[in-house]
Amino acid sequence: MRRVALVVLLVAALSVPAFAALAVDEITPADIDAALEERRAATLSLTDVTKQYEASVVEAELLRIDLERLAVELGVRERELTLLRIQAKEIARQFYVSAGNTGIIGFVDLETFTDIEVKQGYLELIADNDRALLTRVQALEQSYRDQQALLEAAVARQAVVTAELDALAVEILAELEAADAAYKAIVAAYEFQEEEKRRRAEEEARRRAEEEARRRAEEEARRRATSTTATTTTTTTVASTTTTAAPGGDDSTTTTAAPTTAAPTTTTTLPPDDDPPPTGRACPVDGPTSFTDTWGAPRSGGRSHEGVDMISPRGTPLVAIETGFIKRMGNGGLGGITVWIRGESGDEFYYAHLDGWAAGLSVGQSVTVGELIGYVGNTGNAIYTVPHLHFEYHPGGGGAVNPTPLVDSLCN
Fold it and tell me: Integer distance in angstroms from the first to the last C-alpha of the chain?
């Protein structure tokens, strides 16, 4: 972890030339693997926080349902109470007309029957059915107050849960982004290092080639100069009246070719293959993600959750979990921007709440495992939630089954 932290600081604090000049240990593919493991460990450490978040999501949904019910019931009670009050006032008016205004004038103008004392003597003068109506008014007023108190308590709790959701979302995303930044930093440093190696190797090869070309040119110039001198000497000798033979009678000239030096071959260490041959299945989220089992949890409209919500920073790449083709694409409704993939196994996979599709993605298009198909977002009915991928697993193209074990095996 210290190694990753060092690289993060280097990349964040230094310019490229300064970084190139520093004497730091060489980064290896093993370091990248270690950084990836550290990112994975960081996401796993968020499991408890993610469970708290999902529990708050469930509570928020239950509160929303409860608030809708309480509001409806309160409206019904309010309408019923309004009608009963009208009838009660009519009874009071008739009582006033028949019995005079002895202490009853305030009764006619009352708004809440439970807030006044009605003398037993007055009630005894009222017919049984009228007395029952006034008693019902009193009971309904108390029920209305109780219902209103429940509604206010639910609204207050909803505000608390919403604040908790916001805080947990910020915490989860901050941890995921930090873990991803550490991994990306060491990958960027490795790529820069390897690019520097390649550049220096090319410069060295070019320097050697230039030196070899210069050496050859100099050698050719010397050869030409030697040849010109020999020709001049021969011409002068022939022109003389006296010719001197070479010792031993051999007047031939032997020329030895200059040795040549081939330019050395160089070997450059390349980054690991970014696109290994596709096999099996891949995690649908190509980046840091945190999730927990929420299969069957309550959702809006009386639905149950039929997927797993994989929380990731907005814009995190989403990839094909399996080689296959794009069966459907959608933009609207509960899922927002969506993609259906039918894998070569016959299983189908549903991606929802995307921020957008990969450029050029189209229905019927073939995709290979790990190929980019879109990006994490919160479109559709997830607009007020943390960015996440709602992922469903449909074996054989049938009904959905709990996808948590599948993505857990692929992503953790």
Answer: 18
Cα gap 69→336, rounded to integer Å: 27
**Residue type for 48, please?**
D
Q: In this structure, which amino acid lies at residue 281?
A: R
Alpha-carbon gap, residue 357 to 373, rounded angstroms: 6
pLDDT tens digits for 357-403?
A: 999 999 999 999 999 999 999 999 999 899 999 999 999 999 999 99
Q: What is the pLDDT of residues 326-365, one digit of tens each?
A: 999 999 999 999 999 999 999 999 999 999 999 999 999 9
Considering only CA atoms, which of 201, 167, 152 is closest in space to residue 49? 167
CA–CA gap between residue 51 and residue 307 (Å, rounded): 15
